[in-house]
Design a protein that fits this description.
Length: 370
């Protein structure tokens, strides 16, 4: 492919995948915070199973791409040898608290913006600003010098992935081991997901898990294969159209910061619409299209000053936590986990724990007031 327009092509692909994501997420009411809430407050595992199904589908597709040479999993932010365990735990916990106070994670915020929710517009702004100052601003000092400082360097052949821990097991080569580990985990997830009769009959949950998982795989293929080419200036193989200059897929916290940075420095020709930024626009527009088609678009606003305060705090915590943990419930919870990264599994558990604890505290406070 001609590299002169390759970055723009990758961005357009990101926009298209984002539209599909937003449309399906709105239609199916896919919400990771809602999934945790359903389990904690009602014992309903329907949306949690949809999330797990998306993870299983993404795992299958991502590792198939890697096996057939369409994606180099070592060229992602998730699989490096550095293991900043404190940043993963603290960032995940903080994000979990934030998404509970903000009534949804990063992708749900974008979906709600597309549906006319003004509360989510406020969350988006505070989330994006907090993410920006955690990436490059004043909170970046805390992130780098305190939370990432105790990082452990893993002396593993293929970075911080589960298969790398088992290198040499059973005499299997690295590619076969990668597939074997993927197959075992995916099988366990699918058994758990489809053992529930109600879930098997729930069309929207099945649709959400399947399509969102495939969108993540699509993102890996676009940036990790279509976007890989020789840079005519340096003559080096380069990933075009991504902010990290590595292979990327769906994630919504750092991309929100990149979006706000693009708006702020619009006249700077060095800032371009990347894959990540395009997905942010795509999700919101995809949700908006669904809301128009179904006539479900409606303006929603804060019910009280306290409601606004909680959402501002929630958005701020999501921005800080998502960047510190290097991803959100989608960025780490599906995209990262699909690479079998140890850090992604730790972040996933920390986000769920932070959200569940916050919900329990909210419940006890409500009961005390009652």
């Amino acid at each position: 492919m001609d590299t002169s327009n390759l970055a723009a092509t990758i961005a357009w692909w990101g926009f298209g995948l984002g539209v599909v994501f937003g449309f399906i997420a709105n239609k199916s009411n896919f919400c990771t915070m809602g999934a945790v809430s359903d389990v904690v407050n009602m014992g309903d595992w329907g949306r949690m199973r949809a999330w797990l199904l998306a993870i299983a589908v993404a795992m299958i597709g991502t590792n198939a791409l890697a096996y057939f040479g369409y994606l180099d999993l070592s060229k992602t932010i998730y699989t490096g040898s550095s293991f900043p365990w404190l940043a993963y735990i603290v960032g995940g916990l903080v994000f979990g608290v934030g998404m509970t106070l903000g009534s949804g994670c990063g992708n749900k915020t974008l979906v709600r913006v597309g549906g006319g929710n003004l509360k989510s517009v406020v969350v988006f702004i505070y989330m994006g600003f907090a993410a920006m100052v955690t990436l490059k601003g004043i909170l970046g000092t805390l992130r780098v010098k305190v939370l990432q400082a105790p990082a452990v360097t893993l002396q593993l052949d293929h970075g911080q992935t589960l298969p790398s821990l088992l290198t040499g097991f059973g005499g299997l080569d690295a590619k076969t081991l990668q597939l074997a580990v993927t197959g075992i985990i995916v099988l366990a997830i699918l058994i758990f997901v489809f053992m529930d009769r109600e879930f098997r009959k729930h069309f929207d949950n099945n649709l959400a898990g399947l399509i969102i998982g495939l969108v993540v795989v699509g993102g890996w293929y676009v940036t990790g294969h279509l976007g890989l080419a020789e840079n005519p200036e340096t003559l080096e193989i380069t990933y075009f159209g991504t902010n990290s200059h590595l292979a990327e897929s769906m994630s919504f916290i750092a991309p929100t910061a990149y979006t706000m940075e693009l708006w702020a420095y619009w006249t700077d020709t060095s800032t371009i619409v990347t894959f990540a930024i395009a997905t942010v626009f795509g999700v919101g527009i995809g949700s908006f299209i669904y809301a128009l088609i179904t006539k479900s678009f409606r303006w929603e606003h804060f019910s009280s000053s306290q409601d606004m305060f909680y959402h501002i705090i929630g958005g701020t915590l999501m921005g800080f936590g998502g960047v510190t943990a290097m991803g959100c419930t989608i960025g780490q919870g599906i995209t990262g986990v699909s690479t079998l990264s140890l850090g992604s599994f730790l972040v996933f558990a920390s986000i769920v724990a932070g959200s569940a604890i916050t919900m329990k505290i909210q419940y006890h406070m409500m009961m005390r007031e009652a």
